[in-house]
Amino acid sequence: MTATTTAPLATTPVPTRRQPSARLRAWATRAPLLPALIFMIAVTQLPFVATLVISFFDWNALYPDARSFTGLDNYQQVLTDSDLRHSVWTTVLLTVAVVLASLVLGLALALLLDRRFRGRGVVRTLLIAPFLVVPVAAALLWKHVLYNPEYGLLNGLLHYVGGPQPDWISSTPLLAIEASLVWQWTPFMMLILLAGLQSRDQQQMEAARVDGASDWQIFRYLTLPHLRRYLELGALLGSIYIVQNFDAVFTITSGGLGTANLPYTVYQSFYQAHENGLASAAGVLVVIGSIVIATFALRVVSSLFREEVSRA
Amino acid sequence: MSASTVPARRKGAGLGLLAWLAGIVFFLPLAWMALTSFHSEQDAATNPPSFTAALTLDGYREFFGTGGGASPWPALVNSTVASVVSTLFVLLLALPAAYALSIRPVKKWTDVLFFFLSTKMLPVVAGLLPIYLFARNTGMLDNIWLLVILYTSMNLPIAVWMMQSFLSEVPVAIIEAARVDGARLPTILARVVAPIALPGIAATALICFIFSWNELLFARVLTGVVAETAPVFLTGFITSQGLFLAKVCAASLVISLPVLAAGFAAQDKLVQGLSLGAVK
Predict the structure, then answer these.
(1) Architecture label for domain A65-311
(2) Has the ipTM of the complex gone over 0.95?
(3) pLDDT tens profile A116-140
(4) Inter-chain contact A153–B32, Cβ cutoff 8 Å?
(5) How far is A166 from B139, CA to CA, in rounded Å?
(6) B230 contacts in chain A (CB < 8 Å)
(7) What residue ranges define each of the domains in chain B, with the CATH number in brackets?
(8) Are B201 and B273 in contact, with CB atoms under 8 Å apart?
(9) Do A144 and B245 touch (CB under 8 A)?
(10) pTM to 2 decimal places
(11) Which of B48, B118, B230 lies nearest to residue A160, judging by beta carbons?
């Protein structure tokens, strides 16, 4: 594969018990890695290359004979199509809102759970549960059991206090999806931030307290800087999952009422409209967006990782 | 008791109460879902909500198909096969790879590790269409084995990362000592590495199971009648007119039970797994 090392065969005296050559040993070390590596390249990289190729073709699955090479036309169409541009904006809005809201809520909950109190384990369990509901089931729960304007729980509770009876999904469709996702993702953020809080230097905090620092000062000048990378990690991992969200959009609004995000649009343009070329171009754009996020994510993970390795 | 500890303790109790309140608010939708699943359809669809209505198993009977609808069992079996088999494949591929990235690391092992991670950041939609076309042309559409392969690739990077992090917790000195004592590789793996790494491996398996069980997009696009999984079944559940709340709650709860069970079983290692081993 790479440099071929030519060993001076003739001059080496043949040992009585032959040692395996360095190259053989290197391959023996590499061997356990190869099945996983080859599998990943075959299943994830090849389809993406195919997507890239298809994105340069005008190809509607209903008219397979009319397939032709069009260069960058699909990209131009995707970028000028107002629906698609809207779905880019929706994706950004959905991701940013959900990640920020669940980070803030997750931080508050992590701070509450970091203290000792009676029943802490029970509360932790109650808080994790929403994350462990099948996403489709969670979306159905919000759509039918909570948001339903006639007999949903939200309007039922509002009824008691004589409040209004809004039609949640019709009046604020994107917010409705966001709320259900925040409910599911807050526990995830809380778990990461709680791990961050518990890895703080206790002696340092004790010293600050002895020196007369207030709770706010300790939070602002010790806790928050320490948490910074955990916040980054939560935000970036959350973004990676929420940018790709399909389940909630599909279930709650079926992409209607202006809530179609990019994954839903890609799904729709080839599964329902059979526009293979356009769908691929949109898919490539999603990837470019993800690469931007992923570059930051990889940097954060790698800095935490290197610290971990150097500590070991 | 000094004067300053009383307000401090009162504040602590207040914050504890606040934590309980938050826990209850977050859990309320689930508790309400569970309660509704045991109500009759009429009692489930009232405003104001009927908290104390009579309990019944009708929702569950309806879900399991005795009420005349489609049986959920084929979908539940498909989901079980796809999740369990893909998780086994993941372990089979990830364990040797993690070994080559931690205990006997190859050169540039961090680069390899980050290659695995980068594949996880490639959105599913990026490869969906070619996979669909490939499946259609090879007759693999609506075949559960296609999902097994895709779920394996979906979880393999996470598993490699998690197991790399769990295996590197095995002290090299112990392995060296065993080797000096004349233990061969299989013995070292079984007697030295496995006991230390086993809890981590179990948690990895549970997390992979959860992700496969939850997956919707691939299953929705690539399966039909035969290989339909539980989440797809759930999305097609509300086609009928009339009242269906109790039925939906029962269905959602039953389908979420394996995930809830696996999640709580893996609770201690959940963060480490979900953060790809970056947070211990």
Answers:
(1) Orthogonal Bundle (1.10)
(2) no
(3) 888 899 999 999 999 999 999 999 9
(4) yes
(5) 48
(6) 134
(7) 5-63 (no CATH), 73-238+251-274 (1.10.3720.10)
(8) no
(9) yes
(10) 0.86
(11) B48
